[in-house]
Amino acid sequence: MSARIAWIAARGGPLRGDLRVPGDKSISHRALMLAAIAEGTSRIGGFLEGEDTRATAAILRQLGVRIEAPADGERVVHGVGLHGLRGSADRLDCGNAGTGMRLLCGLLAGQDFACELVGDESLSRRPMGRVIEPLTRMGASIAAADGGRPPLRIAANKALRGIDYELPVASAQVKSAVLFAGLYAQGTTRVHESQPTRDYTESMLAAFGWPIRFRPGHAELEGGHRLRALDIVVPGDFSSAAFLIVAACIVPGSDVLIREVGINRRRTGLLAALRAMGADIVEENPRRLGGEAVADLRVRHADLHGIEVPPAIVADMIDEFPALFVAAALAEGPTVVRGAAELRVKESDRIAGMATGLHALGVRVDETPDGAIIHGLGAAGRLRSAQVDSRGDHRLAMAFAVAAQRADGQARIADCANVATSFPGFMALANSFGMSVQAHPATDS
What is the pLDDT of residues 426-439, one digit of tens each? Predict the structure, then answer.
């Protein structure tokens, strides 16, 4: 028998509060990795205390990097320089961290030692071929299980070469892995995107002192330079804020302020989609924090209407679609999503998972290969009591908890333990501003 966690979520009251969400997971991963191979001591504030980012820190420690945690949300990283990592006889366990595994592939592809990256049951089902293919073109040797899935065995290699690479599918993680490998490659590494993705890696490399040229849809760098230690402040994770934003949008009487949220222009497509649906979201006190754009987001309830999600913003909101599906379920009329096939290969098949769960809650969802049509119930609509399965996917679990705030009765959400990978403390924070979410242990064989 294995212990698992189920949630029971139900309608709370109007959502009110002045809140902060945990640090950005994507930035926390990158900050750790670049600080590890920089020269000198870097300090990271606002670090996400999630299982995914802790797994990355544990791997870097295995590779010889001293990382201190003087307080929650803080890390002090004693960099070993570009060529200072040391091999480990043990496997490098990424846990559930797909971001961590893909970025580490790039970072480790040009090391003079072999290593093996492994993950949990969920991560071991996720295809890594999109990262393996360009790294192989650069000269890396990476062996994977059937279908390009973990574990990944990376051979020792000191002869990477720069490539000119056109991303077949928009992915900031693949782009970042290629750029990380480019740090160790001879010559110039160029990455081109038909649809620009978030530029966290490019901005952070520049902040650490690496010469890099980038603009939306293009980045290039040469190998052979150095990274200098840097003090970094990680802004609040927009993907975590997304669930609170949607909750405030759909629950009548809500008025919520979410402070210091990262609003990188390649990350916040959800704001554009929700505003097109009629949401009342105001960015207050815009500023820069640790080199990243942040703002306080004031969100008030508003009646939403369905839209066709513009294809141009799909890549800018790929992690936020579970939250959008909930907003669409309670909007007036249909919402159409296209061009989001990547959702099929996330921690779960998020299109199928959201469609199945929303159907159980009383919403008609027509799946398509690369998206869905969600037939919203409208401003007066109520979801029904049901049992839904998050499929071990943290974002599905939080999305269904938000949906239950507009339900008549309870939603029992199975398999919620992985929320700790990205949003530790979600349940406590949700309950603090008016949601109703309770944990219940569950067992299965």
Answer: 999 999 999 999 99
